[in-house]
Design brief:
The structure holds two protein chains of two kinds. Helix content of chain A is 35%, strand content 17%. Chain A is α+β, with helices and mostly antiparallel strands. The chains are: A alpha+beta, B alpha/beta.
Chain lengths: 513, 335
């Protein structure tokens, strides 16, 4: 009989994630036999963007995530550039990349040391590091542990410095205000370039001499995790860090692969759809491409008869209804994983395998690759060059901004009508990764990656969180932006009376005290 | 961190008045601060983007606490923080429950509190197989907290996720808990602002607050009042700068360890520390036109100088209609 274990909250990620796993003994090994990933926060950004001035989009969407705000700012201005019909000058393209690159470096360092590493070592003997689960933490020696703890502390400094480096051009981090349609606000100076390079030199040395060796050490001591958490091996990257105005050449190219094949296929955004059967959205909005996407929340969604059946048969793992605020993005009907491993694979830089450790290693190598590129780019800035072109807000337009957040492929789908935003759909990397099942019952990437994960102690399922953390989940991003659908009906739960309909209030408050 | 009870009691009276604490609340704060292992802090996240926590992690200072590591190791007992803590699931929630049972902790909330769908658009945790809404968790935890701090504009006032039409019916921490929260507004707030409040609470210093619950020491002046671009050609008023209505010390404190700040990067201030942020008007719509016209809002700050400067139409001062007409096209006479 399977044991159901719930982890809510999954900590050391961004946002709100709940994981439920069924654990059973198969061939003598206690392991995960089924999994359900639930996004437990939902805010409704799309609704907020409707009727706003398009040029506010990059500021509003950055607040989807404070760990990867820059990628949202960039995706927004890329869509705006397309909508306005303008091209940012080279200086702006470079500065946009510099700030995004700095954020990516800070985010990857944060992920390895502060989010993932505590799964494997014991930190200082006080909160927040203790108490902690004491399963399979004996592989590092006392000396190695002590060194890693000191690296954890230096890494706090390094990620802070990476954000300072980004702020040189970005204005401030998090939430840099410098991304605008047509370019960038900062006028670069030699002093800025010089200061950036000073920071970059120290950070690059840290990546080379500390981060990568630590990641390799982890991978060697936890070598068995090269066979854990693989999942489907379907990898998707939109590509990032445009090297030319058209975006044809990128530092990390666009592409995808199926089943960990070394062969890379092209990406056609028209093949993307979002399914909602197991998500808390109205089924009428199922299977839509984001360009025509609609988000109609429906909570709760499961019928009372299903809920009764589930309660009566807790051991029947195939009995479940909607269980997540995340939609299920699919490409040609298939689930895809996205992130540093996907980017590095598609770009030809890393094809060793798909697993927990492969994700950590690919991320570490990518951090160095980006840091080295930052040096090349900052030297390309022309301090006398223009940083922005002006453009007029079109009456009507449709546009897409595709880029990469540290965690993977990020897309903004923008529609302008009467000079205002009339639709704004976002598919974030963690929506791909932490997706629930689709209508065909196919699990999302993290759910699939969990299958077969050995679990020593169901009360301290450290192995489960190790798999989840390898994806570097960012849940604020993942949960879909929401737009009240036509008719504006919202289903509310009254505990004594079950589900009933109520009508949406037409106007919310601008602010609350 | 151990503070002597005598030192603490010396500040008690002032502290209570300044932070609007009731005598019961004050007693609890006293207990928290007397804990030799440092006061317990529970940091919860609601409709947040985690930007406030990321900003806190950018903290650095030449004086103690010198870093976040220093703060966590030597000053506070961070018993619950979703991004940093080792435990997960119910065992993590247990840490909050234990603190609740003991009472006297500081409750820091990042992000607003959604109430739509019965509060089910944000869960704090699943405890004993029951999903606990963030709304319920914050309400409960606030009852036995020694003090409640709203970290960031979302927790303080709702912020961007609460912008029209406030899809998930977000309410502020103060609104949900009915407690007088210390509002460290900002989107995100500067790390110095967060550590300032924590440090003042630890020491037992008074924290005078403005009518929006923000510490006066940080939010007592407008960005405009200290802006180096005042009265210069590089003023960003026509890009929508809200500096004259934004209370924060950004031009003085700068951002990211003194590296830069928004206006210095030619980005207009959009008043992210204000209860009205982001508002419905475009962030680039000019709001404060120094040369009069229908965008004029000088009266907001220059009431006393109205007659002299021409606010309201009269007077002969440099921003009056008469002066501008007399000096038509000759902006260089001042700029």
């Amino acid at each position: 009989m399977a044991t159901i274990t719930v982890i809510d909250p999954v900590t050391r990620l961004e946002g709100h994630l709940k994981i439920k796993v069924a654990v059973d003994t198969v061939n003598g090994v206690q392991q995960v036999v089924d999994a359900w990933a639930t996004g437990t926060l939902f805010r409704g950004f799309e609704s907020i963007l409707i009727n706003r001035h398009p040029a506010d989009a990059q500021h509003i969407t950055q607040r989807i995530c404070g760990v990867c705000p820059v990628s949202h700012g960039l995706a927004a201005v890329m869509a705006l550039d397309q909508a306005y019909g303008i091209t940012a000058p080279a200086n702006a393209r470079i500065m946009r990349n510099l700030v995004l690159g700095a954020n990516m470096v800070d985010s990857h360092i944060l992920h390895f040391y502060h989010l993932a590493l505590p799964d494997f070592i014991n930190g200082p003997d006080m909160p927040p590091w203790q108490p902690s689960w004491q399963v399979d933490k004996g592989r590092f020696s006392a000396g190695q542990t002590s060194t890693l703890v000191s690296h954890y502390v230096s890494a706090l400094d390094m990620r802070r410095k990476a954000q300072e480096m980004g702020a040189i051009f970005g204005g401030r981090l998090p939430h840099p205000p410098t991304y605008i349609p047509g370019g960038f606000t900062t006028r670069p100076t030699s002093a800025m370039i010089s200061q950036f390079k000073t920071y970059l030199s120290e950070i690059t040395a840290f990546i080379e001499n500390t981060y990568i060796p630590d990641a390799l050490l982890l991978a060697s001591l936890y070598d068995d995790y090269k066979g854990v958490g693989g999942g489907y091996g379907n990898l998707l990257a939109y590509g990032v860090f445009d090297l030319d105005a058209a975006g044809t050449n990128k530092l990390l190219r666009r592409g995808r692969t199926i089943n960990a094949s070394p062969d890379v296929q092209p990406v056609d955004v028209n093949a993307i759809s979002e399914q909602v059967k197991y998500s808390w959205y109205n089924d009428r909005t199922d299977n839509l491409n984001p360009a025509v996407g609609v988000t109609t929340p429906q909570y709760p969604k499961n019928s009372r008869s299903l809920m009764r059946l589930m309660k009566a048969n807790p051991q029947n793992l195939s009995l479940f209804g909607a269980y997540s605020w995340m939609k299920a993005p699919r490409y040609e009907g298939l689930p895809y994983e996205t992130g540093a491993l996907a980017r590095m694979w598609v770009n030809g830089d890393y094809k060793a395998g798909v697993s927990v450790m492969d994700r950590h290693l690919a991320r570490a190598y990518e951090t160095l690759k980006v840091a080295e590129a930052l040096l090349a780019w900052v030297n390309q800035i022309n301090v006398n060059g223009s940083v922005a072109v002006s453009g007029r807000v079109p009456e009507t337009a449709s546009a897409i901004g595709l880029t990469e957040a540290p965690r993977g492929a990020l897309g903004h789908w923008l529609q302008i009508t009467d000079g205002k935003i009339s639709r704004y759909q976002i598919i974030t990397p963690t929506c791909w990764n932490a997706s629930p099942r689709d209508a065909a019952g196919i699990r999302g990437p993290i759910e699939q990656a969990l299958i077969g994960t050995p679990v020593q102690d169901v009360n301290q399922p450290i192995e489960v969180v190790r798999v989840i953390h390898s994806f570097d989940p960012c849940l604020s991003c993942a949960v879909h932006v929401m737009r009240p659908g036509e008719g504006k009906k919202i289903f509310t739960l009254h505990h004594s009376h079950g589900v009933e309909e109520s009508h949406d209030h037409e106007h919310g408050h601008d602010h609350v005290h | 961190m151990h503070i002597s009870r005598r030192d603490f009691l010396k500040y008690c009276g002032l502290t209570a008045a300044a932070v609007g604490l009731s005598s019961t609340e004050l007693l609890r704060l006293e207990e928290a601060l007397a804990n030799p292992t440092g006061p317990t802090v529970l940091w919860l996240q609601g409709t947040s983007c985690t930007g406030c926590s990321m900003s806190l992690l950018n903290y650095v200072s030449p004086t103690a606490p010198t870093s976040v590591a220093d703060l966590l190791i030597n000053n506070i007992n961070l018993a619950y923080h979703p991004n940093l803590m080792s435990l997960a699931g119910q065992s993590a929630a247990e840490q909050a429950r234990q603190a609740y049972n003991n009472g006297g902790y500081i409750l820091a909330v990042e992000g607003g509190i959604p109430t739509a769908f019965g509060g089910n658009t944000c869960w704090a945790w699943t405890y004993n197989d029951v999903e606990v809404t963030f709304q319920q968790a914050v309400k409960d935890l606030a009852t036995r907290a020694a003090g409640v701090i709203s970290i960031g504009t979302c927790a303080s006032y709702g912020g961007i996720p609460a912008a029209k039409p406030n899809p998930t019916r977000i309410r502020s921490v103060k609104n949900i808990t009915r407690k007088n929260t210390i509002n460290i507004a900002g989107c995100p707030p500067h790390p110095d602002w967060i550590v300032y409040v924590v440090a003042q609470l630890l020491i037992g210093n008074p924290i005078p607050l403005d009518r929006y619950g923000r510490p006066m020491a940080i939010y007592g002046q407008t960005v405009h009042s200290a802006c180096p671009r005042r009265d210069t050609d590089s003023c960003l008023w026509n890009k929508g700068c809200r500096g004259p209505g934004a209370y924060a010390n950004c031009p003085v404190n700068l951002w990211n360890n003194g590296v830069n700040w928004c206006v210095n990067a030619n980005a207009p201030c959009y008043a992210c520390t204000e209860s009205t942020f982001p508002g419905t008007i475009s962030l680039y719509t000019p709001m404060y036109n120094p040369h009069g016209g229908k965008d004029r809002n000088c009266d907001r700050c220059h009431e006393d100088e109205r007659d002299e400067d021409g606010g309201g139409g009269g007077g002969t001062g440099p921003h009056s209609a008469a002066f501008i007409q007399a000096n038509q096209g000759n902006c260089n006479s001042c700029h």
